[in-house]
Specification:
The protein has 305 residues and is α/β, with parallel strands linked by helices. It contains 13 helices and five strands.
């Protein structure tokens, strides 16, 4: 029987109610069941003093809760962990569990999307990059202005640091346009060892193929119909759509470029990334470059002393 099982008592014991729930239960019993306050408090296991004097929220908690709500409204796809990452500089002593409780109390949980059912296909694992500029992934994202005219966005991201290398916005983007954009990015960052793309005409054009060959860049083409072989840029494009394109309604191409450029800067320099040790991608890349430089040029005995 249940009495012989070592955990029977634990299983049969009811879960303790939190004080706010007990206070609510006492109030219901007093108003609806016509019980005295003393009797109702005894039934739920709450002292009368605790019922009469609920804890007051301190000023620091109020400030923290207000900041959480402010960030959640500005960045609607952020969960409590990313909100905590942004709060750490201003509230260094607050841990993620407290942020979770206040986030839940304010009913700010991110809505889960319905998973789209797709036909089963073979998964091809991506080779993880080991350094900055090892692999750049790129793809196109389409959007439209308020007039209905379509615009095209070329997104380029570094597989290792998850930095957004560039986002070009125009009516149309050819293979030669792509190479000019990558040359501009390389002025400040250097050229990548490899680029990963789908089989779109811009990436299989003579101009693009010649550019890759000239600079000694390996061109990784994914299989047709297998977008997850380009999973890093697919993931980035999802964030780009959710946090920028779906939140804005561009009236002109110029407005679109300005807004997207501001979002890219925020993504690189402010927005924390879980794969970057919860840092912004630009900071993560800078630390990696610094460590790589120190490893290549270790201090000599003379420099140490």
């Amino acid at each position: 029987g249940a009495s012989g099982h070592p955990r029977a008592e634990h299983r049969l014991r009811r879960k303790a109610l939190a004080p706010p729930v007990r206070r609510a239960a006492v109030l219901v019993m007093i108003e609806q069941c016509d019980l005295s306050e003393r009797r109702a408090c005894r039934l739920v296991g709450l002292s009368r003093d605790s019922y009469r004097h609920p804890p007051e929220v301190d000023a620091m908690t109020q400030e923290l809760s207000g900041k959480i709500i402010e960030i959640a409204h500005a960045r609607r796809r952020f969960g409590y962990r990313r909100i905590h990452d942004l709060l750490r500089p201003e509230f260094p002593g607050v841990n993620h569990k407290r942020v979770y409780r206040l986030n839940s109390a304010a009913n700010l949980a991110v809505r889960k999307r319905k998973k789209v059912k797709r036909a089963a296909s073979e998964r091809v694992p991506l080779q993880r990059a080991q350094g900055v500029n090892e692999v750049w992934s790129m793809d196109f994202v389409s959007d439209s202005l308020s007039t209905g005219r379509r615009i095209k966005c070329l997104t380029v991201a570094d597989d290792f640091s998850h930095e957004c290398v560039s986002i070009a916005v125009d009516w149309g983007i050819s293979g030669q346009y792509v190479t000019r954009l990558l040359d501009q990015a390389a002025i400040f960052r250097g050229y990548p060892q490899a680029v990963r793309t789908d089989n779109g005409p811009e990436f299989t054009s003579r101009a693009f193929m010649a550019w890759a060959s000239t600079h000694g860049i390996r061109h990784i083409l994914i299989e047709p119909g297998r977008p997850m072989q380009n999973g890093y840029i697919e993931s980035f494009n999802g964030k780009f759509r959710d946090e920028c394109l779906n939140e804005q309604w561009f009236e002109t191409l110029s407005q679109g470029r300005t807004t997207i450029a501001a979002w890219r800067q925020d993504y690189n320099e402010v927005r924390p990334h879980s794969s970057c040790q919860r840092m912004a991608p630009a900071k993560f890349a800078a630390l990696h470059r610094q460590r790589a430089g120190e490893a290549r040029h270790p201090l000599t005995t003379t420099e140490i002393y």
